[in-house]
Predict the structure.
Amino acid sequence: MPAVSVVIPAYNAERYLGETLDSVLAQTYRDFEVVVVDDGSTDSTRDIVASYGEPVRCIEQANAGPSAARNHGVREARGEAVAFVDSDDLWMPEKLAHQMPLFDAEGRVGLVYSEAERMASDGSPIPTTRRTKPQGDVFLDLLVKNHCPTSAVVVRRECFLAAGGFPEDMVWAEDWCLWLRIARRWQFRAVQEVLVRHRVHAGALTGKLSDAYLGAREVLARTLEDTDGPEVRATVRRGYHRIDRDQALLWLGLGDLAPARRCFWSAIRNGPTDPHVHAGLLATLVPGPVRRPLLGLWKRTTPWVPWTITGRIDPSRMEQ
C-alpha cells in the first residue's frame, strides 16, 4: 500500500491538469498514488488522466463540487496519509519529501502544511506575502485566519475521517472548516518554505464576494461550541473582526460603499481599537476623486491593504 494518496478533484480541468499531474509525478518522495476524481467533466479531463496510466487512477462521479470530490477520493484512497492538490496548482519536487518526515509515530500530528506562492493564470509569479506558519496547537491561530492552502496540506487519513471530511453543504471556506475540526484534536506541523504554486484566476470572485464573505463567517459560527471557554470566544470575535475588516476593505477598493460601511460597522463591534476600520469608515464618506489618492497613500504606509497605489482594487486579491 502507498504511504500517501494524492487526491485531485477535477472538473473540466483539461487546460492545466496535465501540468499539475506532471508536478505531482516529479516528486522525489516516491511512495504515493494519485487519485483524480472527475467531478462530471464534459471536456477531455478523463482522457488526460487515462493517458498517464499507473500510478494515476481516475474515479468518476456526477458533478457535486470539490468537497464531495475530495471526500470521494479519500474514501477510495489506500494511503495512511492524504495530500490534496487542486487541478490547476503545482507542487515543488521536494514537497512530500519535506512534509512526510514531520508526522510522528505516536499520532499526535494530524496535519502538515507548507508555504505557497501565488501565480497568475499563465504561470507568471504574483508577489506573495510570506509569514511564519504556526505549528503545534494551532487552533486559536486558525480561528483568526486560515493559514493552510488546500494544495499545501497532507493529513493523516484517520484524522480526516474522524473530523468528518470536507463539509459538502458549504461552497466557500469548507477547507478552513475542516482544518479547524482537525486542529481541535491534533497538532499541526509546517514547512516554512514554498512547496506549492497556487494559480490565481484574477477576478474569479468579483461577482461572488458576498457569498465568500458569508461562507467565512459561517465557519466561525459552526466551529464555536457551547463548551468553549472565554479564550476561544474572544478569539472567535477576533476572527469575525478580521473577516469583516478585510471584506470592508475589498468593498472600499471596489468603490461599493454601502456594503463597505456595513462591514466596517460590524468590524468595529468586534475590534473597536483597530484604526483601519475607523479610517475605512471615514473613507466611505469621501468623494471618489479624493478617495482614490488617499487610498494610494494608505497603500504606501500599509502594504497589505487590497488595492494598488492607484487606489483601485488589486485584481490578484479578488481570488482571496
Summary: Strands lie at 4-10, 32-39, 56-61, 81-84, 90-91, 109-119, 125-126, 154-156, 187-199. The domain at 4-199 is CATH 3.90.550.10 (Spore Coat Polysaccharide Biosynthesis Protein SpsA; Chain A). The chain has two domains: 4-199, 206-319.
